[in-house]
Amino acid sequence: MSKTMEKYISFYYENAGKPEPMKVDPKKTALLIVDMQNQFVKKDFGDALEHKENNDWERWTPFYDRLYNLTIPSNQKLLKFFRKNNIEVTHGRIASLKKDGSDRCLVQRKPGWNDILLPIDSYGAQIIDELKPINDEIVVNKTTDSVVAGTNYTSLLRNMGIETVVVTGIVTDQCVAATVRGLADEGFEVIVVEDCCAAATKRLHDNELEIMNIIYCQVMSSDEVIELISKNLK
Description:
This protein has 8 helices and 6 strands. It is α/β, with parallel strands linked by helices. A 6-stranded parallel sheet has the order 3-2-1-4-5-6. The longest helix has 28 residues.
């Protein structure tokens, strides 16, 4: 068991013994980066501007500090490793096909922070330049929190022979968590990369990882993921 997994052991598994080590075949593995979009990440656009206009920036500062000091650099490192070793890379993003957002699920239409209208061609819907998709990397457009619900993502994975999905992105306790549960329910092995994710607060981030760890996924660091996969590279 990795040190990161041990950190996030929940009440349910304190006396359950160590889980079997995950076996990862790089040829059957995909990276999934969730919602790392201009709307949610840029400090001078979208949600960040709203926080500043609403005099709420100080409360959100730790989230953006984590994004820029840890989450984005860790994603870049992991992305570089996957690309270098020709391991599948995929992206999920919130993007409505209708300009008025009428195709959005109820969750993304409710008033408040989750009232998200991001037409597919809008600047806010685009993935940040630091993690921009290249070549034939799959980008899944979703109008739900989960990359799984309402999309053909798992069908694409099965077509490609993928069995293990390494999940990163934001926010840990919403779109990342919904995606992880969906993948687990669909029969995929899932790894969530702790330093490649972020939530509004560290408490929400940690609580969600503790809830998901072992039953829905194995929580690891980016270095642990790279070490695990590297052992199986040929």
